[in-house]
Amino acid sequence: MNGHLLSEPECYDLLNRYDIRVPDYCLSESVGEALSSAEKIGYPVVLKIVSPDISHKSDVGGVVTGISSPEELESEYESLLIRINKRIPDAEISGVLVSEHVEEGPEVIIGGKLDSVFGRVITFGTGGTLVELIKDISVRLLPVDRTGISEMIDKTKISAIIGGYRGGEEYDRSALEEIIADAARMFLENEDIISFDINPLILHSNGAVAVDARIIISDEKIPADTPASTPPLLSAPEKFTSPQSIAVIGASSSPGKLGYYLMHNLLPFSGDIYPVNPRGGSILGKEVFKNISDIPVIPDWAVIVVPAKSVPQVMRDAGEKGIKSAVIISAGFKEAGYEGAKLEEEVVSIAKEYGIRFAGPNCLGIMLPYEGINATFGQKMPKPGPVAFISQSGAIITAAADRGIVGNTGLSTVISVGNQADLNFSDYLGMLLKDCRTKAAVFYIEGLKPGREFTEMAGKHAKELPVIVLKAGKTEMAKKAAMSHTGSLAGSYEIYKEAFREAGIINAFSLSSAFSVAGLLASEGWPKGRRAVVVTSGGGFAVLSADFAGENGITLIPLPERMKEELDKFMPEGWSGQNPVDIIGDAGAERYARALDILIRYQDFWDIAFVAASPVTSIDPIKLAKEIVRFSKQTGKMVVGCMISGESMQPGISILNENHIPNFAELYDAFKAVGLALEAGEGAGIFDE
Amino acid sequence: MNGHLLSEPECYDLLNRYDIRVPDYCLSESVGEALSSAEKIGYPVVLKIVSPDISHKSDVGGVVTGISSPEELESEYESLLIRINKRIPDAEISGVLVSEHVEEGPEVIIGGKLDSVFGRVITFGTGGTLVELIKDISVRLLPVDRTGISEMIDKTKISAIIGGYRGGEEYDRSALEEIIADAARMFLENEDIISFDINPLILHSNGAVAVDARIIISDEKIPADTPASTPPLLSAPEKFTSPQSIAVIGASSSPGKLGYYLMHNLLPFSGDIYPVNPRGGSILGKEVFKNISDIPVIPDWAVIVVPAKSVPQVMRDAGEKGIKSAVIISAGFKEAGYEGAKLEEEVVSIAKEYGIRFAGPNCLGIMLPYEGINATFGQKMPKPGPVAFISQSGAIITAAADRGIVGNTGLSTVISVGNQADLNFSDYLGMLLKDCRTKAAVFYIEGLKPGREFTEMAGKHAKELPVIVLKAGKTEMAKKAAMSHTGSLAGSYEIYKEAFREAGIINAFSLSSAFSVAGLLASEGWPKGRRAVVVTSGGGFAVLSADFAGENGITLIPLPERMKEELDKFMPEGWSGQNPVDIIGDAGAERYARALDILIRYQDFWDIAFVAASPVTSIDPIKLAKEIVRFSKQTGKMVVGCMISGESMQPGISILNENHIPNFAELYDAFKAVGLALEAGEGAGIFDE
C-alpha cells in the first residue's frame, strides 16, 4: 500500500488534537524566523530538519539539542543545513523546526501498523534510537481497553523503570496509559493512517511529551476493524459433516487414478455411494452413473475429482441436481496461476448461484472416522477419537491418518482445506463447535485471512473447544518484518502470536506438540490453574520435573505441612519432604497408591498431577496404571501419566489409554504440553472462575 | 565463602595497577578537603559516598554528578551526608570521594566471579544501573584469549552500539578489549578476589574510563585455575569395561532381593560368574562361594550388593584377593547422611590402599550390551549399539534400557554413576574415549565437580567422540543465581552452558533430544557445515522445514542456477525452483531418486540433506528407503531421513535403520537435533578444516 509521511508540524498538530502533548514548536524558513521563534519558546531549544525525504532525522544529523543562546542557534542552524545538504543532497527542505527543550526521562515508543491479516495493531516498548536493537516491545490488536494497555506496559522491561527501578524516580504511568489510549483512538478514527510511531515519548514524573513522531498516510481510507461483537457460527449445510450418501464425480476403475483411490477408500462407508463417470459400467462392484442427473436420489455430498476445466460444468450439474455440499479435490486452480484463478472464480460463482458450499479445490479431501468415511486419496483412515484436524497441507494429513505424529490420539474430523475458495478455516471451526464428539481441534495454518474472524470465534468458544494452531511460514515473515521499519517492529508472526494469545489459542511449535496438547485437553479439559504436584519413584525424574516445571510456567506447590506429615507416616526415612514427591527407587504400585490417596484428600491444593514412573523391578505396570485410573476418577483435576518406557510398561499404558488418561513417553513433552495449555488458558479465561 | 568489599579508593588503586584508567579522584573527610580536591581536579566534579556498608551507591542517592562550582559542592556535600544518614543511619562513613567528571558514552560492565564448578569466569555486557533489567551479558571461562574476548563482545547487543549504531559515533573497541584482558589478568593474579564488577566502564571514541567498581576479597587465597593443557585420559584398570569373570558379593537365591536380580540378569553372560554368600549353596545353578578368598581365580570385577556396613570388609577381602575393579551397588552412604559419608570415606581409603577402582556406591550398576553383561538390578538390557549412556539417575537408565527415550538407538555402555566416590564422569569419559565401539556419548548430569576436568577432556576429543549432556537441576540454580548479585549475573547454568559451548559439548534439553542427537552423530558424524538442502514431496513439510531451519541455525542454500536447470528437466511445471525442493505431492520414489541424483552431483554445495516423505499413495516406502540408502552411500555428507508415519512406512524406516541412516518421525525433532549438533560443532571446531 502506498503512503506518504506527514511532516513534523502535521504530526504535532494531529497528536495535539488527541491530547498528546508535544513540545512548543515553530517552523521557520530562515535563521531570522528561527531566532524569533526561539525567543518566544525560551532557551534552551532544539533544532530539527523538516523534509519529506528524511524520516529518521537523528540518523542523518538532523537534530541538534541543547541550544542555549541566539549565537549558538545561528551557528548551529547554518551547520545543520550544510550537514544535511552534504549527506542527502537531493532532500527537499521544508524548513527547520525550533522546539522546546524537553526535560530528560525514560524514552518509550508507541507505534501502530495496519497488519494484512489482523488489521490495526498497536505496539509499546522501550524507545529512543536503539529501539530495534533492544527489541523490548509488546503488541495488542485494536481496539484495546485500559486493562489491555496496562498489561501491554507490564510485558515490557521498561515497565520496571517506569515504576521506579531500584529506588529510582517513578514516572507518570497513568499519563502513559492515557496517551496509549489516545494514540489508539487516533489510529482508529483516522482511517487513512497506515502506520505511525511516536518515538521518543519522554516520560516525566508528571505527564509525558511526544518529542518525535512519524505518521504515514494512505491516499485511500481503510475502514477500521469493526470486530463483530458476537461472531456468528458460520455454517455449512447441516449434513456437511454427516453425509448419508456420496456421489463421486470422476470415479475411475483404473488403479493409479485418484478417482479409483477415492472409490476404494469410500468402500467401507455404510451409506450410499454413487460413482459418476460418462463411461458408465461399474467400479469396485458399484454401478456407475453416466450423469449426476441419473442418480436416483439427491446425494448429500458430491466429491469431485475430474480435471479442473470440467469442474464448472460438474458444479452446475450438481447444483441442478440439488446437491448442497461438495468436496473439490481436483487441482489446477488458483495455485496454478492466472488461468486457474479465473476458473476458481467461476466455480465460486456457480456455487453461490446454486447455494452449494464446498471444500477445496486442490485438496486431499475429508475423513470422518466416526462415519467410516475416507473421502480422500490417502491410504489410511485414522481411528475415531476426540481430536479434529484441519490442515492446509495434504501431506501432513496422510502422516497423521497413519498415526504418525498424532500418536495414540484418535481423530473425529480431518479436513484438507486446499485453496479455501469457499469454506475456510472459520467455517470449519464453526462446524467443529457444533460437533459434540470433537473435544479439541488442531489447525495447521500457513496463511489465515481474514484473521480476526477465526481468532475471535476461537476466543469466544475457547472454554468449550480448545483450539491448537501450528502456524507455519514464520521464517519468511520474520524476514519481511526485518525489512520493514519501526512501526512494524512487531513482525507479522508476533501479531499472530498476540492474536492467538488473546483468543486463548494454543500456539504449538511442532505437529507432535500440537497433537499432544490436543490429546491432553481432549481427555482432561483445561487445567484449573498452575499449581502442580509430581509423584515419582525416579530421583532423576524428580529433578528433571523441577526443571521442566520452571521452564513451562508450572508451579510446583510447597507441600502443606499436614500433607507432609501424612506422607511421613509411610515414606522411607530421609525422603526429601518436597514436591516433586520422590517416593524413592524401591517403591511399588502400593507406595504410589498411598501417595496418590493423600493427593486425593488434598486436592484443593493443586490443579495438575504428574505421575511418573520407569520400568524398575519393584513396579508392576498394570497395578500402577490401575492406581492412576482410580486416582484420576477421584479428583476433578488434570492427571498426567508419564509411564516412561519402550516396552515393559505398555500393558499399563494401554490401561491408561483405555481410560482416557494421557500418557507421555518423555517427561519433557508432558510438561511442555501442559505449559502450552496454561499459556493459552490465561487468554481463554480459564483461570477466571 | 566470606569476603569483604574493597573501598572505592582501594578499587581505583588496584585497577590503576592493571592499566585500567579510573577518574582522577581524591578522598576527603571534610567539605574543606573536598573543595581543595575539586580545585585540583577541576570542575565539574562528582561526589560519591565511601562506606564499607554501602555497595550500591547510586541506589541510595550516594552519587551526585555534574557539580560545577564550589558553592554547589558545599551544598551538595552537606545534603549528601544528610541523605545517607537518613537512609542508612548505621552506615560507617569513610569519607566522600571527589572525582573527575567523565564524559558521557555507552556504559558497559566487566565482571568476574569464582564459580564453584568451573572456577574463575569473566562476564561482559551492557552496564549502568539497569544491568540486571537488560541482561545483555556474555560469559567466558578464564583464561581467555583476545579472540575469545572479541567473540564475547560480539555476543552482546551493545557491541552494535560500540561499532557505531545506525551512523552513530564509534567507540574504542580495542581499548575495551585491552581492559577486559587486563581485568581478567587482575582476577587471575590476585587469588584473593572472589568477585568483582567494573560498572560502569564508560567508553569513549578514544579509550575508556572505569567510573565505578566493586571488588570482593576473601581472607584466603583460592589458587587460580590451572587447566591442564593436555588433560590425561584418566583410566580405570584395563578390564573395567571388558571383564571376563565377575564375582557377585551378596548374591542371593531369594527372588525380590537385589542380589537375586543381579544373578538373574548376569546369567546370559558368557564369562565366569562367582556368586559369594556366607551361606554357600547354589544360586540359579551356580555354585556359591562362602568367601571371596575361596574363588579359584582372581575375578576381573567384584559386584557388591551387601548392606552398606559390610562393604568395607568386602572391599578389603576383594583387595586381598587381588581384584582391581568393583561396582558397589549398595546404598546407605553419603546420600544417607553423616554416618554414611564416613563409611564412604572408609571405602575410598581401602580402595586406594589396594588399588581398586570402583563405580558407585548407591548405583544401579553397569550394562555392557556388547559383552552380554547386565550387572544391574534393572529388568531389561538394551540392544548393543554405538551410543554410551552415563547417568546420575538409575531410573532413567531403566527407561533407556527398555528402549524408552532412546528409541531405536543401541547402546554400547551404560553406567549408573551413583555417588562417584571413586570413578567419576571424567573417568568414564576417559574410558569411552578408548572404546572404539562408542561413537557418541550421552551424559545425564545433576552435578559436575570438578567441572573443568570433564569439559576440557570432552573438548580436546570432541571431534573423535561427540559428547551430549542433559544437565538437570537448572531451576534451582536459576533461583540461586537470582538471589546473588551483579558479579554473578551469569547464573551457574549460564556458566555450564558456556563451558559446554567452549568444549563442543551438545547441551540437550530433554532425554529424547539427547539420544536423538547421539543417534544422528553416531551414524553420520559431525556435519561439515551449516548448508542444508531439503527434498520432500509434501508442501507442508517444505514450509515447516523452512521454519525449523531458521529456528535452528541451519542454512537452506539458494539452489545454484545449474542445479535448478537440471531439476527443471523432470520436475512438474510450476515447481517452486527453491530450497526446500518441493517435488510435488504426486512424486514417487523415482522422482525422489532423480532429485537425489542431482544432489549427489552438486554435493560440494551442501553439508546436510533432509529427505522428508509422508505415506501418500504414490510413494513406495521400500523403494524410497533404498534410494535414500544409495544417496547416503554416494555422498560424504550428513543425510537425515524423515519418513513421517506411524505404520505404513515402517518397512522403509527399517531399511534406513539397517543401513545406519537416522530417521525422524517428526520433522521438528530432525531439525532440532541437527541444530544442537551445529551449535556444539562450532565449539568443537568441526567447521575449521
UniProtKB/TrEMBL annotation, chains A, B:
EC number, as in UniProt: 6.2.1.13
InterPro entries on file: Acyl-CoA_Synth/Transferase, ATP-grasp, ATP_grasp_subdomain_1, CoA-bd, Ligase_CoA_dom, NAD(P)-bd_dom_sf, Succ_CoA_lig_flav_dom, Succinyl-CoA_synth-like
Ligase recorded as keyword: yes
Domain ATP-grasp: 12-48
Record's keyword terms, sorted: ATP-binding, Ligase, Nucleotide-binding
Top-level EC class as recorded in UniProt: ligase
Pfam families in the record: ATP-grasp_5, CoA_binding_2, Ligase_CoA_2, Succ_CoA_lig
UniProt GO molecular function: acetate-CoA ligase (ADP-forming) activity; ATP binding; metal ion binding
Domain of life of the native organism: Archaea
Catalytic activity as recorded in UniProt: acetate + ATP + CoA = acetyl-CoA + ADP + phosphate
The keyword ATP-binding is assigned to this record: yes
Protein name from the UniProt record: acetate--CoA ligase (ADP-forming)
Organism annotation: Methanoplanus endosymbiosus
Lineage of origin: Archaea, Methanobacteriati, Methanobacteriota, Stenosarchaea group, Methanomicrobia
